[in-house]
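Example (one chain per record):
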Amino acid sequence: MSADLAFLNANVRTMNPRQPTAQAVAVSKNKILKVGSNQEIKQLIDKHTKTIDLKGKTVVPGLIDTHIHLADFGRCLMWLDVSSTESIVELQEKLSEKAKETGVENWIVGRGWNENRFKEKRLLEIADLDAAAPNNPVILYHDSAMICAVNSKALAKAGVSKKTIVPSGGSIDYDVKGELTGIFRDSATNLVWQAVPEPSLEELTKATAVACHEIVKSGLTSVHWILISETEVTLVKKLHAEGRLPLRVNVIVPEAFWEQIKNFQSNDLSMLRVGGVIIFADGYLDSKTASLFEPYDDEPSNYGKLLCTQQQLDLLVNTVLAAGYQPIVHAMGDKAVDAALNAIEKAPKKGKVPFRIEQAAVLNQELLERLKVNDVVVTVQPKVITTEFAVWSATQHLGEQRAKWLHPLKTLLNAGVRIAGGSDCPMEPLSPLLGMHELVVRPSFSEQRLSPQEALRMYTLDAAYVSGEENHKGSIEEGKLADLTVLASDPLTVKPEEIKDIAVSMVVVNGKILKD
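Predicted structure:
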């Protein structure tokens, strides 16, 4: 059999322990035909073969992101990007240009500003935005995503004034005269956001299709798309029917509306498949709603909160299993992880897909041992881990001893627990290479740093294993799907701090070159 596509003179990192490295790869249709030396692959080349000399570039299995909000990423690509602005004046210029394109009275949503980058070294104010876009309601999110700045038009559209009651978990900034400055924080940002109209299905379809191509450009060949609304069920079906999904998508549906997609027909080799149902056992650390056995150190009366009883969680896990899907339990605090493991331990034994806990952030020795015994895969987003320590100040909120058990990834791996990586894009940056970088250079509790090999495995073989697809992807082996990522440098040999800057040279999905 001859190859349709052949890569020669490559540095192939297969993630296959029986053949860790190779020099060349041959592809036939959508499968890997042969992995070996240049000489072996050349024997499969004929006049119909597309042959590519990679000149020493690194080939890794197609990278997989196990946690992304694809439609939200599409929405963000429709927004005004002000992340590069270095002054309020520069931001105003960009905003003014956007207003000319947008039309009077239409909302302008943007993201990425940071007062520490501004020459003025201050927060945005209502007057700044009014001057640049007086005829448009404007909401611009800080690059931390937990703060927004708005103008007068936006306040009027949202019906917000200085008399508005501040919601729990949020705050609003006022000036010395008691007037609104236009800055809203945390849950208070929703006071204005709720007035922003949803894009039409056609607009969202177009934006999400663009997002898919941006995802491929980052080196990803597969994603786990966490749906957050019923509209997204219609959206994903529409994208699939129109052939606008260029990469593999595992859909993960919240239990609140999973029945709407459970009869969708797919198989392990489909570009779209229903990957599982996510069940929320608790909230998040940054809002102090993650459920803990002991209270938050700086808030002695707050233990967080379980979002369902143990009986309800047991029933949900069993119901999802009985329907033939993977139950994915979001559990951040140690009490929530304990509840998730209780449900898993009482559930019927799994088939080919392992149990999965999303986050499993705050752990202890007992929970670690139970994760291993029950073959539970933990899925994490490395940039979120960095944010929890650097921005949320995890050590202050949890205390030194408990913070040591916050995402103890090296300890988990040493105990034999598998971990898969994701991004939480668009809340955090998309790049899987940035994710690997964060794992390898982790500044908080450096004993939990991973090796580059371990970090790469989280985005390849173990990311495939968590969805029961390790027999089809996750490593470069004969007979597996031809999903490949070609990198300009080798993430296993460059300096750790350089991993995030490695360029993606080419992406192959299903045997087709999508980026070169």
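Caption: The domain at 79-193 is CATH 3.10.310.70 (Diaminopimelate Epimerase; Chain A, domain 1).
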